[in-house]
Design a protein that fits this description.
Structural class of chain B: alpha+beta
Number of helices of chain A: 11
Largest interface: A-B, 43 and 42 residues
Strand order of the largest sheet of chain A: 1-3-4-7
Strand order of the largest sheet of chain B: 1-4-5-8
CATH topology of the largest domain in chain B: Butyryl-CoA Dehydrogenase, subunit A, domain 3
CATH architecture of one domain in chain A: Up-down Bundle
Largest sheet of chain A: 4 strands, mixed
Order of helices and strands of chain B: HHHHHEEEEEEEEHHHHHHH
Order of helices and strands of chain A: HHHHHHEEEEEEEHEEHHHH
CATH class of one domain in chain A: Mainly Alpha
Distance between the termini of chain A: 40 Å
Helix content of chain A: 40-55%
Radius of gyration of chain A: 20 Å
CATH superfamily of one domain in chain A: Butyryl-CoA Dehydrogenase, subunit A, domain 3
Strand content of chain A: 5-15%
Number of strands of chain A: 9
Oligomer: heterodimer
CATH superfamily of the largest domain in chain B: Butyryl-CoA Dehydrogenase, subunit A, domain 3
Shape of chain A: globular
Chain lengths: 347, 391
C-alpha cells in the first residue's frame, strides 16, 4: 500500500530507487564483503553528489531542509538495494550538529566525511556504555561521536580516528559490515555538554534506530520480491512452487506484516516531522522491524531450498545483512524491553 | 504513552476534534445506561431505542448520501462517530441494514425499492439479515443451492440458508439465490432477492454459538413466494451487486478497537492478579501492543487512502488478516492475565466495567470466519495482489 505522498516525494523516491539500483545490489554487497571494505565508497560518492547527506539540515545551513519522511524514502531504497553506506549515521549527525551554535563538523559531514556515533554495547543509548561503546563503519570512519564526561558533566565529543586516547580494533560482521568496540580517554573537542546531552543523545539514538528500521523495511521488500519470483518460476511436481496453497499463505503472512510495518514506519516519520513522536514509537518500530525481517527471511530461505543455502545466491547475503542491521542500535529484545519500560505506566 | 484510540496516531483536524467532542457528549447523554459496557451481545429489539436516538440526531447512517437521509460524512467523520460510540462502551447499530444492504439498494435499487426500504433501515424500525451462507456453501459461496424460479409475477424460493446473524429477529432478508443452475461460471447464475421473513413457507431455527447465545439462525424455504419487484439489481446480477458492499464497511468491522480494549483490560487484570510481574506476560503484552501500533498506523493510512479513492486491492484483506488475528490474540491474553480465574463464567470486575473473558474470547472467533475466512483472504492476496499462480 502506497503512502499518500506529494509529487515531490514521489519523484524523490523514484530517483532514489534509480540511484540505489545503479550503485547497489546484493552482488555488489558480496564483492565488498570479500574485499574487506565496510563502506561502498563509489556509492557513497554518488549519494553525496545527489545531496542526500543534508536531507534533514535546514536550507540556510547548506542542507535540503526536508524531513524524516524524505529520509524514509531514501533509506528504504538503500535497504532495498543493500547499499553499504553510513547514510543514517551521517544524516542524523548532520541534523544534530546543524542545531548547535558553532555547527562543528557540519560542512565536513555534508562533504561526505565519515563520522559515526559510538553507542552502548547492546543498545541505542549512549549513556549505558560505561566507557565502552560500539560503532558501525569503524573500519572507514574518520571520527567518532562518543559519550564521555568533562569535569563530572556528561559530554559528547568528536574523536578523530588517530586520537591517541582512542582504543579499538575493527570487528567484522557476517555481511562484511563492521561493529567495533571502542573506548576513549582523552580531550577531543566537545560537541555538547551538560544537561543537554541526555536529550540530544536520546533524540540521536531514536533517529538511528528509526533509520536502521527503514533500511530493514527496504530489505524485506527485496527479499519478498526475490522469493515471489522464485515461487513463480521454480517448478516441482509439474507445477510452479507458488501454486501450492501452503506456500502461498506463508508468503502472504509476510506481505501482511510488511504492509503494516511500512505504515507504522511512515506514520512514525510523520510524527517525527510534526514533533508528535514518542520514544516508545521508535522502540516499537525497531523491535518490530527486526522481528518481521527475521520471519520473512526464515520463509524466504526455506522457499529457496538448497540454492538458498549457498553463498552464491543473493537471498543469503540479504539475510546476513539483515542480521547486522537488526542488531545495530538495539535489536528486537533490547527495543522491546525499552518499549515495555516506556509504556509501563507504573503508579 | 496513552493507549487511546481517539488520540494515538490521530489525524484529527480542528473541525474533526469539534465533531468528536460533540459525538462524545451526545453518546454520554443519550445512550441508555443499560446498553453500555454490558459485555454481552444485545439482541436487535433491545438496541432499537438507541438506534432511534442516533437516527433522530441524523447520525444513524453517516456514510449514506444526504438525499437518502445519511450524513454524507467523510470517512474520517464516520470513523470518529464509530470510535466515540465504542469508546463510551456503547453499542453500534447492527450493520446488516445500514452498512450492507442499504448501500446496495442505494446503488442498485429502483426508485420504488429505495422509497420502500431505505426509510425503515435508517430509522432502525426494520431488522435485516444477510442470507448468503448455506450448509454446503461457506467459503465457496458461489456453489450456493437455494433456488428461485419465476412463476408468473413471483419467484418461488426453495432451499436452506445458514449462519444468518439475527435471522430469528429479522423482518427482512437480503438473499443470494440461484436463478440459473446451468450458468458458467457458477456465480453468473445468482440473483439477489429481498425476502419478507413473514412470508409463508419460511421456518427459522436459532443456532446457539460458542458464546452461549443465539446470535445466528438457519432458515428453511419451502415454496416461498417472493414478488418479482423484490428482485434487486436484475436477474443473475446478485454476485455483482453483493460485491458493492465491500470497502468502507471494513473500517468499522476491522477497527483496531477490539485489540485496544483487550490490551488495556489485560493490563488492568494483570495488575490485580499479579501477572504483571510475570516477564512472559509482559513480553507477550509488549509484542501485541507493538503489533497494535503497527495495525493502527495501517488502519489510519488505509482510511486516508480509501477517502482519496486510492485504496489498493490488498487493503480489505490486510485489515481482515492483521486486525482479526491481533484481536484474537489479544483476547487470548485476557484469559492468561486472569490466571486461574480466566475460564470462570463470572465477570471479572474492573474499574472500566466488568469483562466476561470467556465471552470475549469466544466472540473473537467470528473475526476470522464471518464475511470471508482468513484463508479466503489469504487466497485473495496470493492470487490477486502477489500474482501467484493457480495450481
Amino acid at each position: 500500500m502506497d503512502e499518500l505522498l506529494s509529487e515531490d516525494q514521489k519523484l524523490l523516491r523514484e530517483s532514489a530507487a534509480r540511484l540505489c539500483a545503479d550503485v547497489g545490489g546484493a552482488k555488489r554487497a558480496r564483492e565488498l564483503r570479500d574485499s574487506g571494505a565496510d563502506i561502498d565508497t563509489e556509492a557513497w560518492e554518488a549519494i553525496r553528489e545527489a545531496g542526500w547527506l543534508g536531507v534533514l539540515v535546514p536550507e540556510a545551513k547548506g542542507g535540503a531542509g526536508l524531513g524524516a519522511v524524505e529520509l524514509y524514502l531514501l533509506l528504504e531504497q538503500v535497504g532495498r538495494h543493500a547499499v553499504m553506506v553510513p547514510l543514517i549515521e551521517t544524516t542524523a549527525l548532520a541534523w544534530l550538529v546543524s542545531q548547535s551554535k558553532d555547527e562543528m563538523g557540519l560542512s565536513a559531514l555534508l562533504a561526505g566525511r565519515v563520522m559515526v556515533p559510538a553507542l552502548a554495547m547492546d543498545g541505542w543509548d549512549f549513556r549505558a556504555g560505561k566507557g565502552a561503546a560500539r560503532a558501525a563503519f569503524a573500519a572507514s570512519a574518520e571520527e567518532f561521536l562518543m559519550f564521555t564526561h568533562v569535569a563530572g558533566e556528561p559530554a559528547l565529543r568528536l574523536v578523530p580516528r588517530d586520537d591517541p586516547g582512542l582504543q579499538f580494533s575493527v570487528t567484522r560482521n557476517v555481511d562484511g559490515s563492521s561493529a567495533t568496540r571502542l573506548a576513549y580517554a582523552g580531550g577531543a573537542p566537545v560537541l555538547v555538554r551538560g544537561k543537554e546531552v541526555d536529550a540530544v543523545a536520546a533524540r540521536l539514538g531514536d533517529l538511528l534506530a528509526l533509520g536502521t528500521a527503514i533500511e530493514l523495511l527496504g530489505l524485506c521488500e527485496s527479499a519478498l520480491a526475490m522469493t515471489l519470483e522464485h515461487l513463480k518460476t521454480r517448478k516441482q511436481f509439474g507445477h510452479p512452487l507458488g501454486s501450492f496453497q501452503a506456500l502461498q499463505h506463508r508468503v502472504v503472512d509476510g506481505f501482511v506484516d510488511l504492509e503494516t510495518n511500512r505504515a507504522l514506519i511512515h506514520r512514525v516519520c510523520v510524527a517525527w516531522d510534526t514533533g508528535t513522536y514518542e520514544p516508545a514509537m521508535i522502540a516499537a518500530v525497531k523491535s518490530r522491524s527486526a522481528r518481521i525481517v527475521a520471519d520473512i527471511m526464515r520463509t524466504s530461505l526455506q522457499f529457496h531450498g538448497a540454492i538458498g543455502y549457498t553463498d552464491e545466491h543473493d537471498i543469503g547475503i540479504l539475510w546476513k545483512h539483515s542480521l547486522a542491521l537488526s542488531a545495530r542500535y538495539g535489536n528486537e529484545l533490547t527495543q522491546s524491553d525499552r518499549f515495555a519500560r516506556l509504556t509501563a505506566d507504573e503508579e | 504513552m496513552s493507549w487511546d484510540i481517539a488520540s494515538l496516531f490521530s489525524d484529527d483536524t480542528e473541525a474533526d476534534r469539534a465533531f468528536r467532542a460533540e459525538v462524545r457528549d451526545f453518546v454520554r447523554d443519550n445512550c441508555p445506561p443499560e446498553l453500555k459496557r454490558h459485555g454481552f451481545r444485545i439482541d436487535p429489539p433491545a438496541l432499537k431505542p438507541w438506534h432511534r436516538r442516533l437516527y433522530e440526531r441524523g447520525w444513524a447512517a453517516p456514510h449514506w448520501p444526504k438525499e437518502y437521509g445519511g450524513m454524507g460524512a467523510t470517512l474520517t467523520q464516520q470513523i470518529i462517530l464509530f470510535e466515540e460510540i465504542v469508546r463510551a462502551g456503547a453499542p453500534t447499530p447492527y450493520p446488516h441494514g445500514l452498512n450492507f444492504i442499504g448501500p446496495i439498494i442505494i446503488k442498485a435499487g429502483t426508485e420504488e425499492q429505495k422509497a420502500r426500504f431505505l426509510p425503515s433501515i435508517l430509522s432502525g424500525e426494520a431488522t435485516w439479515c444477510q442470507g448468503y451462507s448455506e450448509a454446503g456453501a461457506g467459503s465457496d459461496l458461489a456453489s450456493l443451492n437455494t433456488r428461485a424460479v419465476l412463476d408468473g409475477d413471483h419467484f418461488v424460493v426453495n432451499g436452506h440458508k445458514m449462519w444468518t446473524t439475527n435471522g430469528h429477529y429479522a423482518d427482512w432478508m437480503f438473499a443470494l439465490v440461484r436463478t440459473d443452475p446451468e450458468a458458467k461460471p457458477r456465480h453468473a447464475g445468482i440473483s439477489m432477492l429481498l425476502i419478507d421473513m413473514r412470508t409463508p413457507g419460511i421456518t427459522v431455527k436459532p443456532i446457539q454459538t460458542l458464546k452461549g447465545d443465539a446470535e445466528f439462525a438457519e432458515e428453511f424455504f419451502d415454496n416461498v413466494r417472493v414478488p418479482q419487484e423484490n428482485l434487486l439489481g436484475g436477474i443473475n446480477q446478485g454476485w455483482r451487486i453483493a460485491g458493492m458492499v465491500l470497502g468502507g464497511e471494513r473500517f468499522t468491522t476491522g477497527h483496531p478497537r477490539y485489540a485496544l480494549v483487550y490490551l488495556n483490560q489485560a493490563r488492568q487484570i494483570a495488575k490485580e492478579t499479579g501477572a504483571w510481574d510475570n516477564p512472559t506476560f509482559r513480553a507477550r503484552l509488549t509484542e501485541l501492543e507493538i503489533d497494535l501500533l503497527a495495525f493502527l498506523a495501517y488502519y489510519r493510512q488505509a482510511a486516508k487512502l480509501h477517502g482519496a479513492n486510492a485504496a489498493p486491492l490488498s487493503m480489505a484483506p490486510v485489515i481482515k488478516i492483521a486486525g482479526g488475528g491481533l484481536a484474537q490474540r489479544s483476547s487470548e491474553l485476557l484469559m492468561l492475565a486472569a490466571g486461574g480465574r480466566g475460564p470462570s463464567v463470572e465477570d471479572f470486575p474492573l474499574q472500566s466495567g466488568p469483562v466476561n473473558i470467556g465471552s470475549e474470547l469466544f466472540e473473537m472467533r467470528r473475526l476470522s470466519i464471518g464475511s470471508g475466512t482468513l484463508e479466503i483472504n489469504r487466497n485473495i492476496i496470493a492470487k490477486r495482489v502477489l500474482g501467484l499462480p493457480d495450481e
